[in-house]
Write a structure and sequence with these properties.
The structure is a homodimer.
Chain A: H1 18-30, E1 40-45, H2 48-57, H3 63-66, E2 69-76, H4 78-86, H5 96-119, E3 123-127, H6 129-132, H7 134-141, E4 147-156, H8 170-173, E5 174-176, H9 184-195, H10 198-207, H11 212-220, H12 223-239
Antiparallel strand pairs in A: 1-2, 2-4, 3-4
Helix pairs in contact in A: 1-5
Chain lengths: ~240, ~240
């Protein structure tokens, strides 16, 4: 099942039952987490009005309003801090280390939710737009200080059956014992299949670029946009009370 | 299976077959990832000498040398950048946004690997020590600029069968439509079960503290340690070429 994962971007309107949603959420919280402190929260969106508010913040990807369930996974030290303060314990988790730990834990919970959903024949798709628009999403979801959205998953019954997307060969990504840096010949070899897929050749033609790499750097994820959204994200994480340096 | 996950800290010496390891690694790279750019790498450690070098960096947790396989999941823009530069494309991924995206993607790959391992009746345990000791671990694993270890997973055949660990009730972690902040009564109610577990009561007695929260703040994850390791991690991420602010 893990080997046949495909992101689903078209959903039937059929609801996800309470029982299945509960299994997905319970699977999420059973994942490993740092010190079993559970410094994350999950926001469930099913209300049509809420979805409409989130839609533009996820760059108008239709699945946000079409999928029956949206889950936003968040770093959350607010609950843990409140508990500590009520127990005369002084928390010290508003720093990079714990923002990072909590990000990992929230992501493990998210991936467990995705796999539980797929076990129930549901489709899922991650929305990377969450980090781009973290402040506005947080306003809609009413996230207090100490809480930052990490990633969003939409889920529901698939209304499409796309092909498996490509991956680099395993040897491009896996190193044994120590990291073996790449020669130019190795880069050419490892990217050859990806660069020659019919889909890639069509993309290059449609985008009128020289090659696939330029589609990433000049069209999809441009340096100036990355810098802009990095600053936005940094400022928001700071505003939520985390010191990142 | 997701609902019965337990971290395993004692392993049999039996090796993991090449076939099973390959399935685990293939499952890891099939996970969702931002833009299908695969800006992560996985380092496999099986060599006894390498494990001995990693052991103190993971605070001498015995499973590092006892488990047959250790996987270190890393943020990696080195490979992607090399490819871009060879294609006259200017990469712009050395910033917070992409460090964060790649962290999420590496973690999704890690959790897929864990679930694939558990499907093969293997046990797993995450090592949070990776962020504490990122620079020294990177030296041992020979990680170049652009590569930062995110988390480590040990895996092998279990030599123990521990009880399920507790979790907060689902309603502590899940919010519907908007985040509902916690009143003091709610915090008391949500932490009641955890605070009254026999294991918790024993821990409080052994540690001679007033309550469980103080074990976290005064013993396990102290503010001054968190600040120290945050600075170490920040400096190392910077050294690897990422600008976090």
């Amino acid at each position: 099942m893990l080997l046949s994962h495909k992101s689903i971007r078209k959903y039937k309107s059929a609801a996800v039952s309470e029982e299945i949603l509960k299994d997905i959420l319970l699977s999420a919280i059973r994942g490993s987490n740092t010190g079993n402190m559970q410094v994350y929260s999950i926001i469930v969106t099913r209300d049509a009005e809420m979805k409409k508010k989130l839609l533009p913040l996820h760059f108008n990807q239709k699945m946000v309003t079409e999928a029956p369930v949206i889950l936003t996974f968040c770093v959350d030290i607010n609950r843990f801090n409140k508990w500590c303060e009520m127990r005369e314990a002084t928390p010290g988790y508003d720093n990079l280390l714990w923002f990072y730990n909590a990000t990992i834990d929230a992501t493990i919970a998210a991936q467990n939710a995705c796999i539980a959903a797929e076990m129930h024949k549901l489709g899922i798709c991650y929305l990377g737009t969450t980090t781009y628009m973290s402040e506005k999403i947080s306003t809609v979801l009413n996230l207090p200080k100490g809480v930052v959205p990490v990633t969003t998953v939409v889920l529901g019954y698939p209304d499409e059956n796309p092909e498996l997307t490509d991956r680099l060969p395993l040897e491009a990504v896996v190193h044994y014992e120590t990291y073996k840096d790449y020669s130019q010949d190795e880069i050419n070899e490892l990217y050859k299949e990806k660069e020659n897929l019919p889909l890639t050749l069509k993309l290059i033609q449609d985008n009128q670029t020289d090659n696939l790499a330029q589609i990433f750097t000049n069209k999809r994820y441009k340096k100036e946009d990355n810098i802009f959204f990095s600053k936005e994200f940094y400022n928001f994480v700071l505003k939520q009370g985390f010191k990142l340096n």
